[in-house]
Write a structure and sequence with these properties.
Blueprint (H helix, E strand, L loop, with lengths): L3 E6 L3 E7 L4 E8 L2 E4 L2 E4 L1 H15 L4 E5 L5 E4 L20 H9 L1 H8 L8 H6 L9 E4 H10 L4 E2 H4 L14 H6 L10 E2 L4 E4 L2 H7 L4 E3 L5 H7 L8 E6 L3 E7 L6 H5 L3 E4 L5 E7 L3 H8 L6 H8 L22 H11 L8 H27 L5 E5 L6 H11 L3 E3 L4 H13 L6 H9 L5 E3 L5 H16 L4
Parallel strand pairs: 1-6, 6-12, 9-10, 13-17, 17-18
Antiparallel strand pairs: 1-2, 2-3, 4-5, 7-8, 11-12, 13-14, 14-16, 15-16, 18-19
Protein name: Rhamnulokinase family protein
Organism: Planomonospora alba
Family: Belongs to the FGGY kinase family.
């Protein structure tokens, strides 16, 4: 059987996709988002699991199933294998101030030298130090590992997602036991590690009865960005990527980590990719700003807004998309307007103007991350591959090409699911290696190329506005 199913969970939606050797088909798509429960912002992971089972029923028999999701969030199991509570959402505020306390205790430079990880307030290491139920925990499972456990009964941690915790040794790709001990975290909760392509186990008998067929579950690159980068349709090493959805993860693929002080100061991360590669990147806030803005404009159609935004005056207002004020859910247009006023700019006057502000600001975020990644790593970049849902946004792709001064190849839109199933196909012996996976990705769907056509001097000036504002504390 050459059919493989990808369970692909994103921060705003989930899907079950099927690969038949020729292309992807969607078996089921469902919404995802935070819920407020027991005083915290959480993921309703049991509801997600019900949707996954429904999707697998609709998918029909497959040779293998793989699971990927966003990073850093986890569930705790007790000694009987019961989930102690729904995972806390990374946008919850429980980790406020913890990163600073950890840096004071261990040292920011030492943390980076061990894990190679950028400092984000919601990194798993900080979440675990905010936990109040560690004494009752027997295992910590990141979200895709939790789903795989429910499907098979097997406990483990896949290495690409484990590399986002801040507790994996970036050199050895083993748990950083010394760091774990110094932070006072219980080593017992860190499960055995798996690599992409490793077998996990067969569906539990009760799960097989519920979906109507049985199959094995295979470890894939379970961090969704790692799967997306595996499906970047590049034909050589001189590329940058932007995996663009709720978040934009922008950087380059390298054979080894970059652990310089300059990289740490720039807050670049070294995350594990398949076949020993390193995803050297930085998080940019991504289309979250647009998604939350749309929630504030009920009835507004995205296509119409994008068309109108393309006619708005360039660079009328800019914000730093990574400003902490934009992280929580809520009224995004109001926060964008407040940031504009705080930085001495006239706020956008209409929804299309807000959209233009968001997309130009995001394109500048892509530019900064890609240029810094190239400079810090020494990797020359000839083209930017923009994959994921953002590749459907023609205005964003065009602005990113103009901002970077490089061609942008947009697509595949379902790069994460595609990378997921291609790892499974390789584990089954149907694909030979990463180069063949990327060649298959290039032929799996339409790709669109955007050549830079904007005014380079204008983009330089826009970048200078944000740089100067940041230096002065304005941005």
């Amino acid at each position: 059987m050459t059919r493989f199913a990808a369970v692909d969970l994103g921060a705003s939606s989930g899907r079950v996709m099927v690969w038949d050797g020729r292309g992807l088909t969607e078996a089921h798509r469902f919404p995802n988002g935070p819920v407020r429960a027991r005083g915290r912002l959480r993921w309703d992971v049991r509801a997600l699991y019900r949707e996954i089972l429904h999707g697998l029923r609709r998918a029909g028999p497959v040779a293998s199933v793989g699971v990927d999701s966003w990073a850093v969030d986890y569930g705790l199991l007790d000694a009987s294998g019961r989930l102690l509570d729904d995972p806390v959402h990374y946008r919850d505020d429980r980790t406020a101030g913890i990163a600073e306390r950890v840096a004071a205790r261990v040292g920011a430079a030492e943390l980076y030298d061990v894990s190679g990880l950028q400092v984000l307030p919601f990194n798993t290491v900080y979440q675990l130090l905010a936990e109040d139920r560690l004494d009752a925990a027997a295992a910590m499972l990141l979200v895709p590992d939790l789903i795989a456990y429910w499907l098979t009964g097997e406990i483990g941690a896949e290495v690409t997602n484990a590399s986002t915790t801040g507790l994996l040794d970036v050199r050895t790709r083993a748990w950083a036991s010394g760091l774990i001990g110094r932070l006072g975290l219980p080593e017992r909760i860190f499960p055995p590690l798996r690599r992409p392509g490793d077998p996990i186990g067969s569906l539990r008998p009760e799960t097989a009865r519920e979906v109507g067929w049985t199959s094995r579950v295979t470890a894939v690159a379970s961090h969704d960005t790692a799967s997306a980068v595996a499906a970047v349709p590049a034909d050589g090493p001189r590329f940058a990527y932007v995996s663009c959805g709720t978040w934009s993860l922008a950087g380059v693929e390298l054979p080894a980590p970059v652990l310089t002080e300059a990289g740490r100061a720039a807050n670049f991360t070294n995350e594990a990719g398949i076949d020993g590669t390193v995803r050297y990147l930085r998080n940019v806030m991504g289309l979250w700003l647009l998604q939350e803005s749309l929630r504030a404009w009920p009835g507004a159609g995205l296509e119409g807004l994008l068309e109108a935004a393309g006619r708005e005056r360039p660079f009328a207002a800019l914000v730093d998309p990574d400003a902490p004020v934009f992280l929580p859910p809520g009224d995004m247009p109001a926060r964008i307007a407040a940031e504009c006023r705080r930085t001495g700019q006239e706020p956008p006057a209409s929804p299309p103007a807000f959209v233009r502000c968001v997309l130009e600001s995001l394109a500048l975020g892509h530019r900064r991350a890609i240029r810094q990644a190239a400079a810090l790593s020494g990797r020359e970049v000839d083209v930017v591959h923009l994959v994921g849902g953002g590749s459907r946004n023609a205005l964003l792709c065009r602005l990113t090409a103009d901002a970077c001064g490089l061609p942008v190849v947009a697509g595949p839109a379902e790069a994460t699911a595609l990378g997921n199933v291609l790892v499974q196909a390789r584990a089954a012996g149907l694909v030979s290696g990463l180069a063949e996976m990327r060649a298959l990705a290039a032929g799996a769907g339409p790709l669109r190329r955007y050549e830079p056509s904007g005014d380079a001097a204008a983009w330089d000036a826009a970048e200078a506005r944000i740089t100067a504002g940041s230096a002065a504390g304005a941005f």
